Amino acid sequence: MSLKLYFHPFSSFCQKVLVALYENDTPFEPHIVDLADETSSADFKTIWPIGKFPVLRDDTKDRTIPESSIIIEYLALHYPGRAQLVPTDADLAWRTRLRDRFYDLYVNVPMQKIVTDRLRPEGKHDPHGVEQASKLLQTAIGMIDQEMEGASWAMGDTFTMADCAAAPALFYANEVMPFGRTHENAARYLDRLMERPSFARAVEEARPYRALFPK
Ligand SMILES: N[C@@H](CCC(=O)N[C@@H](CS)C(=O)NCC(=O)O)C(=O)O
Question: Is the distance from the beta carbon of residue 13 to the nearest atom of ligand 1 less than 6 Å?
Fold first, then answer.
């Protein structure tokens, strides 16, 4: 098989790429990376020394592609399917990329800051960083709530890369800062994402790893 995905099923950025792959039934060979395991982590770093997943390897074209958004762009270009996740119209494309960046940088990243701080050893916590992340996440959810009034997906009627980014980011954000009662449009958007078969499948496949989520 040409495409190999190095990932972990519980990781939000990996789920973003899984959604893109599942949207188009793109065949790939899954390689689960366990960063807690020395050998698995070292093997993965020979492919991408930065050590962050997901990473796509395309043996046919001899390419190694890190970064979730770049992977989705690469798939859209070289392995297109029925779901056009990056619009061909240039204006729609930059707006899609903007929404994608928004969900990554202002929802996913602060959500991860809050979660990973819980995993830090005693004396190594970063309360100021967590406070900043919480404020940023709160602001982002408020903006999303306004934008999603009357919209089905992040870009309107069509499911795009921005929704691939939004699904896991909002799912985990809702775990750390539940917004169902305060931001109904955002909450209804998350419900729609949860019902989307591609994301429902990613959530189901992550279920065995839920114990990894720190309370
Ligand atoms: N900008 C990267 C972020 C990837 C990322 O942060 N991945 C997390 C998992 S969700 C990771 O690899 N964490 C492990 C670590 O930082 O050691 C992307 O979009 O792919």
Answer: yes
ω into residue 208 within 30 of 0, thus cis?
Answer: no
Centre of ligand 1 to C-alpha 109, Å, is 9
pTM over 0.85: yes
pLDDT tens readout for residues 94-135: 999 999 999 999 999 999 999 999 999 999 999 999 999 999
d(CA 110, CA 104): 9
- Ligand 1 atom with the shortest distance to the CA of 67: 20
Instruction: For ligand 1, say whether the CB of 172 is within 6 Å of any of its atoms.
Output: no
161-176 helix and 90-103 helix, angle to the nearest 10 degrees: 20
Closest of 192, 202, 200, 144 to residue 13, by C-alpha? 202
Quickly count: other Cβ atoms within 10 Å of residue 108's Cβ: 24
Of residues 119, 124, 135, the one with CA closest to residue 10: 119
* CA-109 nearest atom, ligand 1: 6
The H or E element that residue 29 is part of is strand 29-32
Q: 155 in helix, strand or coil?
A: coil
Mean pLDDT score, 53-78: 98
**Residue 32 Cα, ligand 1 centroid: separation in angstroms?**
14
